[in-house]
Amino acid sequence: MGEIWAIILAAGESKRMGSSKMLLPFKGRSMIENVISNVSKSKADEIIVVLGAYFDELSLLMKRLDVSYCFNDNYMKGMLSSVQCGFNNLPPDYKAALVFQGDQPLIPPAAVNRVIDEYFRSGKGIIVPVFKNRKGHPLLVDKKYKGEIEKLLPEEGLHSLLDKFGDDLLEVETGEPGILRDFDTYDEYRKGINQIQ
How many domains, the chain? Predict the structure, then answer.
Protein backbone atom coordinates (compact mmCIF):
# COMPACT_ATOMS: atom_id res chain seq x y z
CA MET A 1 0.00 0.00 0.00
CA GLY A 2 0.98 3.62 -0.38
CA GLU A 3 3.01 5.70 2.03
CA ILE A 4 0.93 8.87 1.74
CA TRP A 5 -2.81 8.58 2.30
CA ALA A 6 -5.47 11.21 1.73
CA ILE A 7 -8.32 11.27 4.25
CA ILE A 8 -11.34 13.09 2.78
CA LEU A 9 -13.95 14.13 5.35
CA ALA A 10 -17.45 13.70 3.92
CA ALA A 11 -19.48 12.66 6.97
CA GLY A 12 -21.11 15.96 7.94
CA GLU A 13 -24.84 16.65 8.08
CA SER A 14 -24.54 19.86 6.01
CA LYS A 15 -27.05 21.54 8.34
CA ARG A 16 -26.36 25.07 7.11
CA MET A 17 -26.61 23.94 3.48
CA GLY A 18 -29.92 22.16 3.97
CA SER A 19 -28.90 19.15 1.84
CA SER A 20 -25.78 17.06 1.30
CA LYS A 21 -22.96 19.37 0.21
CA MET A 22 -21.06 16.40 -1.13
CA LEU A 23 -23.71 15.66 -3.77
CA LEU A 24 -24.23 19.22 -5.02
CA PRO A 25 -23.32 19.67 -8.70
CA PHE A 26 -19.96 21.33 -9.24
CA LYS A 27 -18.18 21.63 -12.61
CA GLY A 28 -20.20 18.83 -14.17
CA ARG A 29 -19.87 16.38 -11.28
CA SER A 30 -20.74 16.23 -7.60
CA MET A 31 -18.62 18.27 -5.21
CA ILE A 32 -17.07 15.19 -3.59
CA GLU A 33 -16.18 13.75 -7.01
CA ASN A 34 -14.28 16.94 -7.80
CA VAL A 35 -12.35 16.68 -4.54
CA ILE A 36 -11.54 13.01 -5.16
CA SER A 37 -10.49 13.75 -8.75
CA ASN A 38 -8.10 16.52 -7.67
CA VAL A 39 -6.55 14.33 -4.98
CA SER A 40 -6.21 11.37 -7.35
CA LYS A 41 -4.19 13.56 -9.73
CA SER A 42 -1.73 14.43 -6.94
CA LYS A 43 1.19 12.49 -5.48
CA ALA A 44 -1.02 11.05 -2.73
CA ASP A 45 -0.84 7.25 -3.01
CA GLU A 46 -4.24 6.20 -1.67
CA ILE A 47 -7.58 7.80 -0.73
CA ILE A 48 -10.03 6.99 2.05
CA VAL A 49 -13.31 8.89 2.35
CA VAL A 50 -14.98 9.17 5.76
CA LEU A 51 -18.76 8.88 5.48
CA GLY A 52 -21.55 9.47 7.98
CA ALA A 53 -24.70 11.41 7.09
CA TYR A 54 -26.20 10.55 3.68
CA PHE A 55 -24.30 7.27 3.83
CA ASP A 56 -26.55 5.35 1.42
CA GLU A 57 -26.20 7.85 -1.42
CA LEU A 58 -22.51 8.54 -0.87
CA SER A 59 -21.46 4.91 -0.43
CA LEU A 60 -23.06 4.06 -3.79
CA LEU A 61 -20.97 6.82 -5.35
CA MET A 62 -17.78 5.64 -3.62
CA LYS A 63 -18.25 2.14 -5.00
CA ARG A 64 -18.05 3.58 -8.53
CA LEU A 65 -14.82 5.41 -7.74
CA ASP A 66 -11.37 4.00 -7.02
CA VAL A 67 -11.35 4.88 -3.32
CA SER A 68 -11.67 3.23 0.07
CA TYR A 69 -14.28 4.49 2.49
CA CYS A 70 -15.25 4.04 6.12
CA PHE A 71 -18.29 4.91 8.23
CA ASN A 72 -18.01 7.23 11.23
CA ASP A 73 -20.55 6.08 13.83
CA ASN A 74 -19.95 9.32 15.75
CA TYR A 75 -20.31 11.78 12.85
CA MET A 76 -22.89 13.84 14.77
CA LYS A 77 -20.16 14.69 17.30
CA GLY A 78 -18.33 16.85 14.78
CA MET A 79 -15.37 16.93 12.43
CA LEU A 80 -12.72 15.64 14.84
CA SER A 81 -14.61 12.34 15.16
CA SER A 82 -14.32 11.93 11.38
CA VAL A 83 -10.61 12.76 11.46
CA GLN A 84 -10.10 10.10 14.14
CA CYS A 85 -12.19 7.60 12.18
CA GLY A 86 -10.08 8.22 9.08
CA PHE A 87 -6.78 7.71 10.91
CA ASN A 88 -8.11 4.58 12.64
CA ASN A 89 -8.91 3.02 9.27
CA LEU A 90 -5.48 3.54 7.70
CA PRO A 91 -3.24 0.50 7.13
CA PRO A 92 -0.41 0.00 9.62
CA ASP A 93 2.32 0.72 7.07
CA TYR A 94 1.28 4.25 6.09
CA LYS A 95 3.83 7.03 6.56
CA ALA A 96 1.71 10.21 6.69
CA ALA A 97 -1.82 11.34 5.93
CA LEU A 98 -3.28 14.45 4.34
CA VAL A 99 -6.62 15.63 5.72
CA PHE A 100 -9.07 17.18 3.24
CA GLN A 101 -12.55 18.56 3.72
CA GLY A 102 -15.08 17.19 1.27
CA ASP A 103 -16.39 20.66 0.45
CA GLN A 104 -13.10 22.03 -0.89
CA PRO A 105 -13.19 21.20 -4.62
CA LEU A 106 -10.88 24.08 -5.56
CA ILE A 107 -7.65 22.67 -4.08
CA PRO A 108 -5.49 21.90 -7.13
CA PRO A 109 -3.20 18.86 -7.33
CA ALA A 110 -0.17 21.18 -7.47
CA ALA A 111 -0.90 22.49 -3.96
CA VAL A 112 -1.19 18.94 -2.64
CA ASN A 113 2.09 17.99 -4.29
CA ARG A 114 3.81 20.99 -2.73
CA VAL A 115 2.78 19.81 0.73
CA ILE A 116 3.93 16.24 0.06
CA ASP A 117 7.24 17.35 -1.46
CA GLU A 118 7.99 19.59 1.53
CA TYR A 119 7.19 16.76 3.92
CA PHE A 120 9.85 14.55 2.36
CA ARG A 121 12.31 17.42 1.91
CA SER A 122 12.05 19.00 5.35
CA GLY A 123 11.68 15.99 7.64
CA LYS A 124 8.99 17.88 9.58
CA GLY A 125 6.05 15.92 10.94
CA ILE A 126 3.28 18.46 10.32
CA ILE A 127 2.97 20.40 7.06
CA VAL A 128 0.40 23.17 6.62
CA PRO A 129 -0.38 24.79 3.26
CA VAL A 130 -0.63 28.57 3.38
CA PHE A 131 -2.00 31.26 1.08
CA LYS A 132 -0.95 34.82 1.97
CA ASN A 133 -0.26 33.87 5.61
CA ARG A 134 -3.61 32.09 6.02
CA LYS A 135 -3.55 28.38 6.85
CA GLY A 136 -5.63 26.04 4.72
CA HIS A 137 -6.04 22.41 3.72
CA PRO A 138 -4.84 19.73 3.34
CA LEU A 139 -2.97 19.41 6.60
CA LEU A 140 -0.34 16.66 6.42
CA VAL A 141 0.37 14.74 9.63
CA ASP A 142 3.08 12.11 10.13
CA LYS A 143 2.09 8.70 11.51
CA LYS A 144 3.96 9.42 14.75
CA TYR A 145 1.07 11.70 15.80
CA LYS A 146 -1.66 9.08 15.45
CA GLY A 147 -1.78 8.54 19.22
CA GLU A 148 -2.03 12.29 19.82
CA ILE A 149 -4.91 12.55 17.35
CA GLU A 150 -6.78 9.77 19.17
CA LYS A 151 -6.46 11.71 22.45
CA LEU A 152 -7.71 15.06 21.10
CA LEU A 153 -10.93 16.46 22.56
CA PRO A 154 -13.79 17.61 20.28
CA GLU A 155 -13.31 21.24 21.30
CA GLU A 156 -9.63 21.08 20.33
CA GLY A 157 -9.74 19.86 16.75
CA LEU A 158 -6.88 18.68 14.56
CA HIS A 159 -5.36 22.16 14.29
CA SER A 160 -4.53 22.08 18.01
CA LEU A 161 -1.58 19.89 17.00
CA LEU A 162 -0.05 22.99 15.42
CA ASP A 163 0.16 24.66 18.81
CA LYS A 164 1.29 21.56 20.69
CA PHE A 165 4.05 20.59 18.27
CA GLY A 166 5.12 23.89 16.74
CA ASP A 167 8.76 22.80 16.60
CA ASP A 168 7.84 20.03 14.17
CA LEU A 169 5.64 22.24 11.98
CA LEU A 170 6.35 23.70 8.54
CA GLU A 171 4.10 26.23 6.81
CA VAL A 172 4.30 26.03 3.02
CA GLU A 173 3.19 28.90 0.79
CA THR A 174 1.23 27.42 -2.10
CA GLY A 175 0.12 30.49 -4.04
CA GLU A 176 -3.29 28.81 -4.29
CA PRO A 177 -6.37 30.56 -2.80
CA GLY A 178 -8.36 27.34 -3.28
CA ILE A 179 -6.75 25.85 -0.16
CA LEU A 180 -8.89 28.28 1.91
CA ARG A 181 -12.19 27.92 0.07
CA ASP A 182 -15.06 25.82 1.37
CA PHE A 183 -18.84 25.97 1.02
CA ASP A 184 -20.93 25.98 4.18
CA THR A 185 -24.14 27.66 2.98
CA TYR A 186 -26.16 27.53 -0.21
CA ASP A 187 -25.38 31.21 -0.82
CA GLU A 188 -21.63 30.53 -0.69
CA TYR A 189 -22.15 27.63 -3.06
CA ARG A 190 -24.13 29.70 -5.59
CA LYS A 191 -21.51 32.46 -5.52
CA GLY A 192 -18.75 29.89 -5.97
CA ILE A 193 -20.50 28.31 -8.95
CA ASN A 194 -20.96 31.71 -10.59
CA GLN A 195 -17.29 32.59 -10.14
CA ILE A 196 -15.94 29.45 -11.80
CA GLN A 197 -18.29 29.42 -14.78
Answer: 1
Peptide bond into 138 cis (omega under 30): yes
Full domain range(s) for residue 158:
4-196
Predicted confidence at residue 197, as pLDDT, reads: 47
Confidence tier at 196 by pLDDT (50, 70, 90): low
Provide mean pLDDT across the span 86-99.
96
**Which pLDDT belongs to residue 195?**
60
What is the spatial distance between Cα 190 and Cα 41, in angstroms, rounded to a whole number? 26
In three-state secondary structure terms, 156 is coil
pTM of structure: 0.93
Helix axes 31-40, 55-64, angle to 10 degrees: 40
- Using the Cα atoms of residue 186, residue 191, residue 192 and residue 194 in order, give the sign of their dihedral: positive
Burial bucket for residue 186 (CB in 10 Å: 0-12, 13-18, 19+) = middle
Phi (first) and psi of residue 175, to 5 degrees: 70, 15
Instruction: Name 26's Cβ contacts closer than 8 Å, sequence gap at least 6.
Output: 34, 105, 193
